[in-house]
Amino acid sequence: MQAAVASSGPGLAAGADRIVSEASRRRTFAIISHPDAGKTTLTEKLLLYGGAVTEAGSVKARSGRREVRSDWMELEQRRGISISSTALRFEHRDVVFNLLDTPGHRDFSEDTLRVLAAADCAVILLDAARGVEEQTLKLFQVARARGIPLITFVNKYDRPGMDPLELIDHVEATLELAAVPLTWPVGIPGDFRGVLDRAGGAFVRFTRTARGATMAPEQALSAERARDEEGEAWTTAVEELELLEAAGAAWDPARFATGELSPVLFGSALSNFGVRHLLDTLIDVAPPPPGRADADGAVRALEAPFSALVFKVQANMDPRHRDRIAFMRICSGRFERGMKAINARTGKPIALTYAHELFGQDRTVVDDAYPGDVIGIVNATDVLVGDTLYLDDPVRFGAIPTLAPEHFVTIHNRDPGRRKQFHRGLEQLDQEGVVHVLRRGDEPSPILAAVGPLQFEVALERLSSEFGVKVSLDPRDWSVARRVTAEDARAVRGSRWGEILERADGTLLVAFRHEYGLQQLERELPDVALDAMTAR
Ligand code: G4P
Question: Who wins on pLDDT, 147 or 418?
Answer without folding.
Answer: 418
